[in-house]
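HOLO CASE FILE
Compound: NDP
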Amino acid sequence: MGAVRIEGKPIAQTIKEQVKQQVENLQQKGVFPCLAVVLVGENAASKVYVGGKEKDCAECGIRSIIHRLPESTTEQQLLQLLAELAEDETVHGILVQLPLPQHINPQTVIEAIPPEKDVDGFTPENVGKMLIEQDCFLPCTPAGCIEMMERTGVEIAGKHTVVLGRSNIVGKPVAMLLLEKHATVTICHSKTVDLAEQCRKADILVSAIGKAEFVTKEMVKPDAVVIDVGINRNEQGKLCGDVASDVEEIAGYLTPVPGGVGLMTRAMLMKNTLLAAQRQMKS
Ligand code: NDP
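Model generated. C-alpha cells follow.
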C-alpha cells in the first residue's frame, strides 16, 4: 500500500500563520520581533539556508537583519559583532549559521550568544535546561521532528524509538526530546554493532547521519514511522535524505526529503524568535 507521507509544508505553513498572528499582536504593543542572522564565508548550502530564513521572517512579519561577513573574518571580529547584537534591545534572536570557517571555534561563538536570544537552542544553558525539562529554547530540527509527529497524530509514549546519529545539534537532542515524550530510546552511531538489527526494532526510526539513502527497507519494521532528517546528495547529484526510496514500501509513515523535516526546522526557528520577543518583553 505504501507509507503515508508526512509533508512538512502544510504543517510548517500552519505554524508560520500562527506565529504571524502573534507577531501582529506584539507589534500592536510596540514590540517588533527581530532576528539577526550571521553568515561567515561562502558556503553554498549556508547561503541557501540563510535566504530561506530571510523569506520565512518576511512571511511571519518578523524583521530580519542578515550580516554577511567575509571568509577572512577573525573570531575576535565575530565575537565583537555578537556582543553588539547581544546589547541591542531591538534584536530578539541571534543565529550564527554553521559551519563556520576552520579558523573560528564554533563553541566559543555559540557561547557568546546570550541564552535569552539563542533561538537555535545551542548554548550550554539551553541544552542543560532541555535535559532537565525546564523552559528553554529547543533546538529547531529536533523540536520540528517532534512537532511533525504530534501534529500528524503519531503516538510517541511507550514506543521503541531508534535514533541514528548522536550529534549535538540533531541526534542527542532529538533522543532527549523523545525520552521526554516517554518513548524508549536507543541511540545508534558509527560504532554501533549490528545497526540494521537495532533499526528493525524501531516503531519510530529517526535518521540523522548524513549518508545518502543509507536506510533501506530491510532495516525497517513494517508500519514503522520513519523520520528522515538527512540532507544529502546522491550519486546523481540529486538532493535526498538518509532513507532510500524503497522504505516507502514498508513504513507506515515517512517524511520526504526535500519537503519534510527541513521545512519544520525553518518553522520552529520562527516560533523560537517569536518566543524570544515575548520573553524579552515580559522581563
Ligand atoms: P554529523 O555529521 O554531525 O553527525 C552524524 C552522526 O551520524 C554522527 O553521530 C555519526 O556517528 C553518525 N554516523 C555517520 N555515519 C554513520 C554510519 N555509517 N552508521 C551509523 N552512524 C553514522 O551530522 P548532523 O547531525 O549535523 O546532520 C546529520 C544529517 O542531518 C546531515 O545530512 C545534515 O545535512 C542533516 N541536517 C538536516 C537538518 C534539517 O533541517 N533537515 C538540520 C541539520 C542537519 P559518530 O558520532 O560515531 O561519528
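CASE NOTES: The mean pLDDT is 97. The first strand starts at residue 4 and ends at 5.
CLOSED: yes
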